[in-house]
What we know:
eight-stranded parallel beta barrel, 35% helix, globular
Amino acid sequence: xxxxxxxxxxxxxxxxxxxxxxxxxxxxxxxxxxxxxxxxxxxxxxxxxxxxxxxxxxxxxxxxxxxxxxxxxxxxxxxxxxxxxxxxxxxxxxxxxxxxxxxxxxxxxxxxxxxxxxxxxxxxxxxxxxxxxxxxxxxxxxxxxxxxxxxxxxxxxxxxxxxxxxxxxxxxxxxxxxxxxxxxxxxxxxxxxxxxxxxxxxxxxxxxxxxxxxxxxxxxxxxxxxxxxxxxxxxxxxxxxxxxxxxxxxxxxxxx
Length: 256
């Protein structure tokens, strides 16, 4: 089993870190630079910075805030929000992002993934997939992909889209269960496992962490390569070190 990563997520709106439940009811939880520094010192492997209203507002993530955040930390910074072109990606990488995460723009123009992977290397291109479950008429679960911060249904099935983005050049997939987001009831490991078994790239599991065993289960049951969490870290329920020590004791390889 390869080394696993623990990644805090900074959902940023109006220059502040926020957190909600099921993509709604957002609460202010701090300054992004201060939060990033705290998590860097606490043992995070990477930090995700998502400007959650950029796509809806028709702009890319604020490069000035990203530059400040990148300068303040020593670990990789993944940035997403409002990316619509290779030029946008170039600007964010120049501002200090180690990787970029594309979502809505990739759904509108899938070839952006291929162009970005060719220009910057697939290892720097993450495709974020927001998925919501519903039951099919045959009684089986299906997950539909959503765009624009979970506001727009696309009609795409999650595994079909995951396979397509992999073939186009995505180096990782950031997979968020909209149903589990912010609930602290655990990751949707049926969803995570289904996608992980479909594509041979790293899956970053997102949405639902609330207890230490949820992180363990994301790796063992969901076959994730990394776990992303927000509420459990922002509200100091657990520290990143506590999570990593628990995972180590459960036999999951992590860097302490």
